[in-house]
Request: fold
Amino acid sequence: MRGPRSRRPWRVPATVVALAVLLSGCGDGSDQAAENDDGASGVGTTVDNCGLEVGFDDPPERVFAMNTGAIENLIELGAEDRVVGAVGDLDRMDEELRETAEELNIIHPGGEDYPSPETILDTEPDFVYAVYPSAFREDGGVATREELRDLGVQSYLAPGRCPDRDDERPLEFDEIWTELREVGALLGAEDRAEEVVAEQEDILAEVRANLPDDVGDLDVFWWDMGTDDGPTAGGCCGAPGMILRELGVNNAFDDLPGHWAGTNWEQVVERDPDLVVVADFGGGDADDMLEFVEDDPTLRELRAFQEDAVIVLPFSQTTPGLRNATAIETISARLTDETGQ
Amino acid sequence: MAMTRWRGEADRWASCFPSPSSCWGGSVVVSVAIGQSDLSVREVWTVLTDRLGLSWVRSDALGLYGVDGITDLRANLVWEMRLPRVLAAALVGAGLAVVGAVMQTLTRNPMADPYLLGISSGASLGAVAVIVAGLSVGGLGVAGGAFVGALIAFVLVLALGQRAGRLTPTRMILAGVAVGAFSSALTSFLIVWVADPHATQEAQFWLSGSLAAARLPSVYTMAAAVLVGLLVCGVVARPLNAFAFGEDTATSLGIGVHRVRWVLLVVCALVTGVLVAGSGAIGFVGLLIPHGVRALVGPDHRRVLPLSALVGATFLIWVDVVARVAFAPREMPVGIMTAMLGVPVFLWILKRKVDR
Reply:
């Protein structure tokens, strides 16, 4: 599991109800999802998002971004001027976008925790956009999506992470494109969304065309985190699984459920991967992980570490989102080098 | 009076298990051969005898021929990963069960366990401080942090629990509860405040109690601590019997109650601190295994202490085997499994006790 998790038992819906006072007088505050009168005044887009209808007559002007990935997507869509506040960890953000992100009103930077609902509602958003379901969880999130809607704030959650989505269904790139298109449509930036998706599709097509023939035999261990207590590996159904599938290589831990799951080192030794992908959470984290291997008499004997078949990816490329295509590019370049094609 | 009945009971029980220690020894060897990686018992045997310089054991009349061509990688897997883990399980199980038995007698409280005096909460705080805040204690990492945390908590409890140099059970327990509650609150605060998912997950795993991180160096430390602890407890086994009847009785029997109590508390705290530092706070073992053993062999510490050590060690070895293997390719922290597997067995023993 990734994404913040904290326990705040004292947070009850009552807080949120009380906060309605804060919001009274801003926006029209009512349920505006259901009605969609065409051509009245603007775009009038409605999408079904995780079973909730989200729609605007006019594109939202005050957007709150709940996770690093949401900030990245909003910048990609050229909507950074409309971001009234954001929560995220800029250190883990793609470098090209970081500069733009630094200009934003980042609340509680340097962590993945969520600020209190008051802090967020204080920025008077009309649209809250998150990529992790934890953002809207009753326990530790900001507020549930229903609570926000009752306050007149619409919300959007990455469709690949819907709570009702089947955990055993592998994540697909299409879900990431859908997310971008839908958010683009809601913001009235459809054209830009199409451009971004096309760019990403081009990257993938390029990679597919140039992959060496024999990558199907490669077993790849996706090492997300964890050292002496055992590793957390990329499982069947998250971004790691999706990236490895796209590359046509075998995910050594395809039998693990969900996006990421804990396993143990014996399994890694047993599966003897050809290649290791290391997720770098920043702050010297990947170095620590590799140092741990170097110090371990068993693990350093593994073929992949012996032959230095290790690829380190920055965090933003390892969590579901637009940067996954870049990850694919990085890994495929390495595969091509290795096989000398 | 009652003693004779106990003795008969013990003999009957002992006849079912001629030697609990052989049971334990067998567990070590067999459980090393069980794991998620596919190694045959023969391969494991080969590696163990080679590394111990006992290759001749294999080629003798036993006809236990070794296996050729075991890669360094697999040999290391057995020697550097699996064996330390099994030994750590044995040491932690033995240590916690003995300390638990002693604490129950010293405090005359059946609810007492090794963590009564705030040691596990202090250790958790120390460990989480290292994991979450990246504090490092003398380069010892999480284990170092846990040990220092345990010591600080224990010293606080002693300071609060004594009156003019004398420790009374009630004050000690209250001080332990208070220090424990405070440490737990600080631990939760750190986890919530820092909220790095990376660190949160690691902290969660540690707090559950796990033997996954056991490696040879930490096993040596644990072994030293447990041996010292067992020796000291063995020496005072008889005086401890007197404690069971209360302080006045013990004093009238010429036992230096306060000195014995101080020595035992300090030794038990140090042992528990080392064990918790290596494995997190594994529950159940220190609380219920002594009760289970008493239910089988009666209250005499000369029996209860060594048997608690053996039963605790054997129990934790096998629970860790389940934790390691049952959920492959995943793994469950052993601390989650101890009560799940132990409580039904414990209830069964209790029930048989009452039925007879």
Observations:
- Chain B is about 75% helix and 0% strand.
